[in-house]
Amino acid sequence: MAGKTLYDKIWDAHVVDTQDDGTCLLYIDRHLVHEVTSPQAFEGLRMTGRKVRAPEKTIAVPDHNVPTTPGREDPKNMTEDSAIQVAALDKNAKDFGINYYPVSDIRQGIVHIVGPEQGWTLPGMTVVCGDSHTATHGAFGALAHGIGTSEVEHVLATQTLIQKKSKNMKVEITGKLRPGVTAKDITLSVIGATGTAGGTGYVIEYCGEAIRDLSMEGRMTVCNMAIEGGARAGLIAPDEVTFDYVKGRPHAPKGAQWEAALTWWKTLKSDDDAHWDKVVTLKGEDIAPVVTWGTSPEDVLPITGVVPAAGDFKGGKVEAAQRSLDYMGLKPGTPLSEIKIDTVFIGSCTNGRIEDLRAAAAILKGKKIAPGMRAMVVPGSGLVRAQAEEEGLAEIFKEAGFEWRLAGCSMCLAMNPDQLSPGERCAATSNRNFEGRQGRGGRTHLMSPAMAAAAAVTGHLTDVRDLI
Amino acid sequence: MDKFTKLTGIAAPMPLVNIDTDMIIPKQFLKTIKRSGLGKNLFDEMRFTQDGEEIAEFVLNQPAYRQAEIIVAGDNFGCGSSREHAPWALLDFGIRCVISTSFADIFFNNCFKNGILPIVMPQEVVDVLMDDARKGANARMTVDLENQTVTTSDGQSFAFEVDAFRKHCLLNGLDDIGLTLEKVSAIDTFEKTAAQARPWV
Ligand code: SF4
């Protein structure tokens, strides 16, 4: 019998019940909740008189629709709809007795940054959240994925999820990365190679030397965008880097429990003879700093490239590419590095961690943003923000001309007032460049924090390698 | 959840690939704390101008498709966010079935939880169904879940696959949570064993 993958092992450890047709009831170790996709689920519990089965395993934080400007503890400084959603979460957290980080708490932030930061996310766990970027937590060797609101209600009530197992896909990044190339370039390049549906039906395990060499922050960036590649989840086997990151976090195990946990965690890797349904291999040294040109995350090209023509594609993608070009206001053949931008957004659960801010600040140090540029940094959590202030990064951003915001999702999905106007063009470190994602008519180019910082300085998309 | 058994209705053709959840229901409509009332904003930015005027060319604004109950779509329908507001908006508009070559995983799941049937068909079949949908309001397509077939207005019939458990839930309008709670003793047992094996969780 073939060995097991990491996914197989975590799955097997969490099956509560299997039906004849293979549908399983899977136990959920951690359930993360935010204000936008949960109100209807709590309403459902109230209507049926059900309780939260494991409130101690449930963690809530408002992030998607909160302002990132000072004074937000006072609901009067929120738009009415934000205030309603945040008040609903306040109330639900209290009524159902779940762990909660309100906006006034320094630990508040984007749910996928708070979970790991507080040690809620641990190797070998099953983690779900009513948000597709739950895949982020896979960086710890946890099986983590997004769910819809009906499933949020299901997990609240039963601490389980009805699931069918996905197939196993291995994405290997061999060798070393070149200077100026980051985790974001890896994850975008993988999507560029496989397409946004390339991972549909699979759970991806990322492996290879270039992945092993990444910090936990970098690994979270890679796994975060597994969903853009269509996969249910992305994960990375835990190792010393993981254990070092987890150790000492508020909710990580301590003492004898730490030792017991570590013993199990060390078994969490794919066996050499495990079966893979699909394998994709990229050479680390072939990956360049990339940007997206279109309105799908698969529209990825090295910054040294040119805007493609619709005719370069096949099938249904021809029409989609033409639509993208029209929407993005781009002419085929234009060098990507000549595309002018007017807004820069550094933040999100993809790239809102301390290392991301360090990478951007390293480019910005002693420089100013281009005239007329609007640039903002939205740290992923209050603690990331505090650390960046302590390290002097906040000063670098402010002196360069960036706005220094409070933690939240902000312009990643632009539900709060941080939005692009029609035709505005943004260099963003977030994960989606869909039409209207950052504001109706807004145009988004996805890239790494260093690349976004470089664009802020020059006023156009820029090869960061020219600035280092 | 409403049952889904057999549906005969108008199908709207949407051949675009990668129709994402931001297109289906833009985020400004996620601010509600209710499930209902989202249909008027379905495909909002494709359907209306910034001033709220209808965009005449958009398929669901055309007289033939205003009453559509089925969408025939390009590859990878529903990609993007986990927002269940997407199926809620489709349902509220009156869509009960979406047919495509492929769907994004979370969206696919979310459909079943709301009584919408997503059907995966091979490209050649989607092409035939797309042509049928283009015929407009007089061409009604029939989706029969019991027998797992889609039949075009001119009588061509195609079989489709559907997960047996999901089919059962949809045919009977069953609530997942109720079903799972019948297994509560298995969950209790699992929790006890897991607490021994992994006490730190
Ligand atoms: S930062 Fe963006 S992608 Fe991440 S959870 Fe928030 S809205 Fe979703």
From TrEMBL, chain A:
Give every Aconitase/3-isopropylmalate dehydratase large subunit alpha/beta/alpha domain span: 8-459
Q: Which reaction does it catalyse?
A: (2R,3S)-3-isopropylmalate = (2S)-2-isopropylmalate
Q: Read off the SUPFAM superfamilies from this record.
A: Aconitase iron-sulfur domain (SSF53732)
Q: What is written in the cofactor note of this entry? A: Binds 1 [4Fe-4S] cluster per subunit.
Query: Which InterPro entries does the entry link to?
Result: 3-IsopropMal_deHydase_lsu, Acnase/IPM_dHydase_lsu_aba_1/3, Acoase/IPM_deHydtase_lsu_aba, Aconitase_4Fe-4S_BS, Aconitase_4Fe-4S_dom, IPM_dehydratase_rel_enz, IPMI_cat
Q: Which residues bind [4Fe-4S] cluster?
A: 349, 409, 412
Q: What pathway does the UniProt record associate with this protein?
A: Amino-acid biosynthesis; L-leucine biosynthesis; L-leucine from 3-methyl-2-oxobutanoate: step 2/4
What CDD domains is this protein classified in? IPMI
**Could you state one GO biological process linked to this protein?**
L-leucine biosynthetic process
Enzyme Commission number:
4.2.1.33
UniProt keyword annotations, A-Z: 4Fe-4S, Amino-acid biosynthesis, Branched-chain amino acid biosynthesis, Iron, Iron-sulfur, Leucine biosynthesis, Lyase, Metal-binding
Q: Which enzyme class? A: lyase
The GO terms this record gives for MF are: 3-isopropylmalate dehydratase activity; 4 iron, 4 sulfur cluster binding; metal ion binding
Keyword Iron tagged:
yes
Identify the cofactor(s).
[4Fe-4S] cluster
Family in the record: Belongs to the aconitase/IPM isomerase family. LeuC type 1 subfamily.
Subunit relationships: Heterodimer of LeuC and LeuD.
Matching entries from HAMAP family are given as: LeuC_type1
Q: What does this protein do?
A: Catalyzes the isomerization between 2-isopropylmalate and 3-isopropylmalate, via the formation of 2-isopropylmaleate.
Q: What is this protein called?
A: 3-isopropylmalate dehydratase large subunit
From TrEMBL, chain B:
What EC number(s) are associated with this protein in UniProt? 4.2.1.33
GO BP annotations listed? L-leucine biosynthetic process
| Catalysed reactions listed for this entry | (2R,3S)-3-isopropylmalate = (2S)-2-isopropylmalate
The pathway this protein participates in, as annotated, is: Amino-acid biosynthesis; L-leucine biosynthesis; L-leucine from 3-methyl-2-oxobutanoate: step 2/4
User: What keyword terms does UniProt attach to this protein?
Assistant: Amino-acid biosynthesis, Branched-chain amino acid biosynthesis, Leucine biosynthesis, Lyase
Gene3D superfamilies per record = Aconitase, domain 4
Q: Where is the Aconitase A/isopropylmalate dehydratase small subunit swivel domain?
A: 1-123
Chloroplast as UniProt keyword: no
Q: Which domain of life is it from?
A: Bacteria
Q: Name one GO cellular component term.
A: 3-isopropylmalate dehydratase complex
Top class in the EC scheme: lyase
GO molecular function (one): 3-isopropylmalate dehydratase activity
Its biological purpose: Catalyzes the isomerization between 2-isopropylmalate and 3-isopropylmalate, via the formation of 2-isopropylmaleate.
Subunit info here reads: Heterodimer of LeuC and LeuD.
Q: Which NCBIfam families match?
A: leuD (TIGR00171), PRK01641.1 (NF002458)
Identify its protein family: Belongs to the LeuD family. LeuD type 1 subfamily.
Instruction: Please give the name of this protein.
Output: 3-isopropylmalate dehydratase small subunit
Organism of origin is Albidovulum denitrificans
- Which gene holds the coding sequence for this protein? leuD
